[in-house]
Amino acid sequence: MLTKEKNDLITQTGPGTPMGEVFRRYWMPCLLAEELPEPDCAPVRVELLSELLVAFRDSEGKLGLIDEFCAHRCVSLWFGRNEESGLRCPYHGWKFDVNGKCVDVPSESPEFCKNIKLKSYPMVEKGGVLWAYMGPPDKKPAEPEYEFCTVPSARRFVSKRFQASNWLQALEGGIDSSHVTFLHGDNVDSDPLFKGAGGNKYNINDLQPIFKVVDHDDGLLVGAHRNAEDDQYYWRITQFLLPSFTMVPPRGDYPVHGHFWIPINDDTCYA
Ligand code: FES
Ligand SMILES: [Fe+2]
User: Fold this and answer.
1) At 253, which helix (H) or strand (E)?
2) Domains in the chain, please, with CATH?
3) Mean pLDDT calculated for residue range 136-141
C-alpha cells in the first residue's frame, strides 16, 4: 500500500501539483471528435486535471479550449452562442475566439477588448479524438501518433466512459493481468474480446501468474507468465506508456486495444 502522502502525490493533478505538471507535458484525450461534430455546434463543458474549461468548434472549424468563465462577470461560456468565429457570452455579449482572445465587447469601442484574454489551450483532432495540451507552450511535444490515429476511421473504434475513481485506481486495472482469471474467467467463451483465442485456457488454468516488469523510455513493459504445455510459459505483455496509457495485449487475431486514463479531477477520470 502507498502511504497517504505518496498516494496524494501521484493522484492529485490540479494546477501546480507535481503530478499535474507531468500530465501537462503530454497531449491528452479530451473529447471524442463527435462531441463537436461541426462548425458552430453547441460548446461542450470540459473538466480536465481539475480545470474547468469549455470546448468549441468555430465557424471555420477551428478548435478552441478556453476557460469556462467569461472574463467579465464569470458567466459560464457553456451558455454562450457559438457564431461568426467565436463564442459570445449571453450576458453582455463579450465574444472570445478559439485562442481565448476577446474580439468584441458590444458596449465599448473596438479598442476596449485589446488586452482581454481568457486562458486557452491548443486542441487537435487525431484518430476520432480531440487532444488537449495544457503545458508550457515551449515544451509542447509532437502531436499524437498512436497507431489508431494513423489508420482510416473504418479501422478503429473509440469510446469514452466516466469512472468514479481516481486515474491511478483505474489504470491499475489496465495493467493487472492477474484479475483476468478471476473476473473474466467465467465468460472467456462468450466475451467478444476473448472468444476462441488460443491463450484462454492458460489464463483459466493458472491462477498464479508471475510478473516481470521492464523499463523502457516511454514507460514500462509489464509481463505476466502462466504455465502452458510441458516446460513452456504463456506470456502476456501489457504496455504502460506515460503518463497514463495502457495497451492490453490482443488475443489471437483480435484488434489491439488500450485505454487512456484521464484525470477529470482528483477523484474521477475518463477512460
Ligand atoms: S459576464 Fe460575460 S459579457 Fe458580461
Ligand atoms: Fe478486466
Assistant:
1) none
2) 27-155 (2.102.10.10), 166-270 (no CATH)
3) 98
